[in-house]
Amino acid sequence: MLLGLTETSGGSVRVAGLDPTREPLAVKRRVGYMPDSVGFYDNLTARENLRYTAKLLGIPRAEFESRITDALARVRLDDVAERRVGGFSRGMRQRLGLAEIWLKRPEIAILDEPTSGLDPQATHELLDMIRSFKASGVAVMLSSHLLDQVQTVCDRVALFNRGRIALIGTVSELATQVFGGDTVIQVEAEGAVVQATLERVPGVRRVTREETGALRLFCAGDVRPEIAAALVGAGAKLLRLNLLQLSLDAVVRALLRGAPRCGVKARPGPVLARSSSRSLPIICRALGCACSSGWCCWSASARSGPRSATSRR
Hints:
Layout: H1 24-30, E1 31-34, H2 46-57, H3 64-74, H4 90-104, E2 108-112, H5 120-135, E3 139-143, H6 147-153, E4 157-161, E5 164-169, H7 171-179, E6 183-190, H8 194-199, E7 204-209, E8 215-219, H9 224-233, E9 237-243, H10 248-258, E10 272-274, H11 280-286, E11 295-299, E12 307-308
Parallel strand pairs: 1-2, 2-3
Antiparallel strand pairs: 4-5, 6-8, 6-9, 7-8, 10-11, 11-12
Helix pairs in contact: 2-3, 2-4, 3-4, 4-5, 7-10
């Protein structure tokens, strides 16, 4: 849709100020695209494939070889330029795909799952090359489900749910929207009253239990000294006390697994309670819920306190 290759079902988009539906050729001249599976002629060498692309792009013949050589050098394929692409690994093909984009000298590069199926070394090298595109002034739009890679490359992130953008911003902005700006501390301790003790520490706003059994505390600032003192005073054995750096993975996990899901126009009842969480409207919107009443559906548990229940939507 961004390249004008398929019709849109609704909404509108602008690429470099252009409408790809009405001006697809103008968009294609300014955008480089690499699909998740790059197609090349296996019986041609890397240089011959790029030469063919250069002809299709209408690059003047006087510039052919210099631009091809520059593109191959940028993606570190200059030493295999005369080898047939049929013998290339997937990582080498992906790098040749980046060379093809660089040959075009675009303003924007759209990359679809560029590191899918690559080993760690090839992934590291490809991400370095993508960063070099950014450093050269090319706007890179990257789609991926590998959140750690997204975080290392992207300045801004959009999280999609059911085909719509649920949240958008820098990773720190997303974390603030979801966690309300709290400092998150992870605690592992042994003792009969660990959770109750932690809930009474000044500055601790909320305590949740992770699947591993560790406790996650959402606090107003770094209160690790107070937490340690409270646990020692209660006779508990402190095993671990970590200040967590909120990652994109943590944001997505909070949205999809740990966040309360509200019903649509839910009515107050035995299992309903108005949530005091500042992040509830953000979470509801990200999960695709149209409810704006603030009523959140909880399943009560005398042993562990409120838990998020399955959405009624």
